[in-house]
Amino acid sequence: NAGVTQTPKFQVLKTGQSMTLQCAQDMNHNSMYWYRQDPGMGLRLIYYSASEGTTDKGEVPNGYNVSRLNKREFSLRLESAAPSQTSVYFCASSLIWAGGLNEQFFGPGTRLTVL
Amino acid sequence: GENVEQHPSTLSVQEGDSAVIKCTYSDSASNYFPWYKQELGKRPQLIIDIRSNVGEKKDQRIAVTLNKTAKHFSLHITETQPEDSAVYFCAASRDGGSQGNLIFGKGTKLSVKP
Questions:
Q1: What's the pLDDT at A98?
Q2: Which segments in chain A show pLDDT lower than 70?
Q3: Record: contact A42-B104, CB cut-off 8 A
Q4: Spatial distance between the Cα atoms of B87 and B15, rounded to a whole number of angstroms
Q5: Nearest-CA distance from A17 to chain B in Å?
Q6: How far apart are CA B28 and CA B18, in angstroms?
Q7: What is residue A40's predicted lDDT score, i.e. its pLDDT?
Q8: Does residue B52 carry a pLDDT above 90?
Q9: pLDDT in tens, B12-51
Q10: Max CA pair span of chain B
Q11: What value, to the nearest 5°, has the Cα angle with vertex B41 and ends B35 and B47?
Q12: Across all residues in chain B, what is the average pLDDT?
């Protein structure tokens, strides 16, 4: 099992450019998440998908969109990148959304720099 | 919504000493409290968790305690080793509803000096 995979690992964008971060899991998990991690800020939830076919905003959704393509894949899109979106992005998945069975497994992260 | 505060933000101990990291939460309905460890440049990984019907849980050198009345929980690491050096995150969540997501603390950077 590969677990949770993310592409790309590193990316540099110019202000205004767009890009999509890809995430896939092979654990047959129902729930998937996108976080951003900034120094001293911990992990902040951008969007989540409690189950296939549903997506919801997290704590910091502005400037992002998501697509739950199927049960395995959950993508994050930056339509017009801004320097404030420079961060490390983690995708995660869990068996279910809540109920104490929501141990989250994280991908390796994408380090994004917006110039 | 839920708010999780974590202290201290940095912690330095000598190898073999104990380390304690504390978190407080605001939502009395929260009932699941995991701890994640993130080594430098790596992904966060679950190291231990506790549910609200349990007061303490141990796994070798790691233990977590929960005080529901005071709404705080703590991570205890005994006999620390250099490989324990990492950033530790606490989190809280509750079953169902709009608050099923994990809410993370801001993290504690633990340094274990040989």
A1: 63
A2: 98-101
A3: yes
A4: 16
A5: 26
A6: 29
A7: 81
A8: no
A9: 999 999 999 999 999 998 888 999 999 999 999 999 999 8
A10: 46
A11: 20
A12: 92
Write out chain B residues lying below 8 Å of A105, CB-based: 46
| Residue B16 tokens, joined | 């073999």
Answer whether B56's CB lies under 8 Å from B64's CB. yes
What's B63-80 look like in SS3? Answer: EEEEECCCCEEEEEECCC
* A19 to chain B, closest Cα gap in Å: 22
List residues in chain B touching A: CB distance below 8 A.
6, 9, 31-32, 34, 42-46, 49, 51, 89, 93-97, 100-102, 104-107
For residues B32 and A11, what is the distance between their CA atoms, to the nearest angstrom?
A: 35
Residue A85: phi and psi, rounded to 5, are -95, 5
- Structure tokens, B25: 């939460």
Looking at the predicted structure, is the pLDDT value of residue B86 above 90? yes
Query: What pLDDT is stored for residue A101 in this prediction?
Result: 62
**What pLDDT sits at residue B31?**
87
Instruction: Spell out which residues of chain A touch residue B66, defining contact as CB-CB under 8 Å.
Output: none
Least Cα separation, residue B79 to chain A (angstroms): 26
Contacts with A103 from chain B: Cβ below 8 Å: 34, 46, 49
Q: What gap in Å lies between CA A66 and CA A20, rounded to an integer?
A: 9
Query: In terms of Cα–Cα distance, which of B34, B29, B33, B27 is closest to B95?
Result: B29
